[in-house]
Amino acid sequence: MRLRLLVLAASCLLMTAACSSTPDDPTPTPDAGTQPPDTTTGDVAPADRTACSGLTVTAGTYDWTVEHGGRTRAYRVHVPRGYDATKPTPVVLSFHGFGSDEQEHELLSNFSRLGDTEGFISVYPRGLNFPEALGRGDADSRSWNGVACCGPAQVANVDDVGFVDALLADLDARVCTDPRRVFASGFSNGGFFTYRLACERAQRFAAIAPVAGMEGSAACAPSRPVPVLHFHGSADPAILYEGGNNIPAGRPYPSAAESVRRFAARNGCTGPEQQTFQKGDSTCVAATGCSPESATASLCTVTGGQHAWPGQPNFNGGTLDLDATLEMWRFFQARPRP
C-alpha cells in the first residue's frame, strides 16, 4: 500500500510554492494570513427522509465527480452489500491526509469493509491537487482547508466546505442516504478539516471522529452540540499531541486535549471525565454531564503512538490495542442527529 500521508516536517517548500496560482486554482491566491470566508450561512438541516424511490445505484464501489467553484471535484463511494435503494442508509465521510488520495484512504481507514458488515455507505472525497506546489511536476499535494492546516488548500482558502455541500447534494440524488445519520472522520489534515465541518456544518454532520488532527478554526460556533471522538498518538512527530506551530505555512494549533475540551465546553459538558476504554497502550476518556448527554467529547490517547491510524499496524505502526474504525462506528451508531 503506497501511502504518502502527511509528513509536514519535510514539506517546507509548501510555504512558498503554495502561495502562487495554479491550474487547479485559477483565482488570485490570498495572503497566508487571510481569514477563511464565512461559510456558516450554509449550515442548514436537510429534510428528514423516511423512504426513497427511483434510485438505481446498487452495491459496489463508484468514482463520481461533482462540479463546484469552476472545478471538477472527485469522490469515491462504497455502497455496502445488502443495500436497499428504498431505505435511508447511514453515511460516513472520511477525509484523507495531506498528499494522499481517496484510494489510499479507503485502504487506511477500512470503512468500506466495515460498512459491508454494518450496513453504512462509505465516502472518500479527494482534496485538490496542486501539481507544482512542491516544485516538482510529479509532486502530490492534495489537501484540505482546515484553517490552521494544511498546504495549498489552506493557504489559498479553497472552499472545501462548499465542495462538501455539493458532494452531499450529489450523493443524496444517487443513493438513499439518511440525513440524520451522516458522520465525518479524517486523518491528519483531514482531521483538521473534520473539525472544521463540525464548526460550520453541525446541521449536516451528526458526529465527528478525527484522527491525528486538531481543532484549528479561528472561530468555531457550532449551531448545535456535535459529539466528538478524537484519536491521537502521544509521540506524534507531525501533528504534536501537545499542540504547536510546526506546520509549514500553517498556523498554531491546540493540543489534542484542548481540541476536545473546546467541544466539551460547546456541548455543555459540566461533569468529570470518565474512562471509557483501556487496553495496552490505549486509553479513552469522555466528558460527562453534556447537553444532551450523548453529545460527549472524547479523547483516545495511544501512549507512545506515532502519526498513525489506530488498528493499522502497517502504516506508521498503528497500535493493535485499539481499532479506531470500529470504535468510530460504535460512537456514530449511538449518536444520530436530533
SSE topology sketch:
Blueprint (H helix, E strand, L loop, with lengths): L13 H4 L42 E9 L2 E9 L9 E7 L6 H8 L1 H8 L2 E5 L25 H5 L4 H15 L2 E11 L1 H12 L6 E5 L16 E6 L22 H11 L7 E6 L2 E5 L10 E6 L21 H10 L5
Parallel strand pairs: 3-4, 3-5, 5-6, 6-7, 7-10
Antiparallel strand pairs: 1-2, 2-4, 8-9, 9-10
The CATH class designation is Alpha Beta
**CATH homology superfamily name:** Alpha/Beta hydrolase fold, catalytic domain
Helix and strand sequence: HEEEHHEHHEHEEHEEEH
* Count of strand segments: 10
Distance from first to last alpha carbon? 39 Å
Class derived from helix and strand content? alpha/beta
Indicate how many domains the architecture comprises.
1
Task: Provide the spatial order of strands within the biggest beta sheet.
Answer: 1-2-4-3-5-6-7-10-9-8
Low-confidence stretches: 1-34, 132-138
Question: What is the CATH T-level topology?
Answer: Rossmann fold
Average pLDDT score: 88
Q: Which percent band covers the strand fraction?
A: 15-25%
CATH architecture: 3-Layer(aba) Sandwich
Radius of gyration: 18 Å
